[in-house]
Backbone:
C-alpha cells in the first residue's frame, strides 16, 4: 500500500529509492527481523559472562559492549 502511494507521488528515482530503503528498514524492525538497538544491548548484557542478573552493568561489561560496537561499526563501513 505504501509503495503504491509513493508511486503516485512521482518522486525522482534517487528519492524514491531512499524512501524504499527506509520503509524496508522500518518493516524489518516492525516484524522483528532486525533487532532494535535497545534489544541488542539488552541481549549483550544479559548474556555477558560477568553479568550477575542484578541490573548492574559493570565497567567490564560496559567496556566489552563498546569494544563490540566499535568492531561492528568498523566492519559495516
Residues:
Amino acid at each position: 500500500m505504501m509503495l503504491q502511494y509513493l508511486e503516485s507521488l512521482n518522486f525522482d528515482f534517487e528519492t524514491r529509492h531512499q524512501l524504499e530503503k527506509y520503509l524496508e528498514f522500518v518493516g524489518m524492525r516492525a516484524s522483528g527481523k532486525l533487532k532494535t538497538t535497545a534489544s541488542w544491548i539488552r541481549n549483550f548484557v544479559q548474556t555477558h559472562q560477568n553479568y550477575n542478573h542484578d541490573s548492574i552493568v559493570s565497567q567490564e561489561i560496559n567496556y566489552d559492549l563498546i569494544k563490540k560496537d566499535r568492531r561492528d561499526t568498523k566492519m559495516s563501513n
Q: What stands out?
A: The chain has two domains: 1-34, 35-77. The two ends are 33 Å apart (CA to CA).
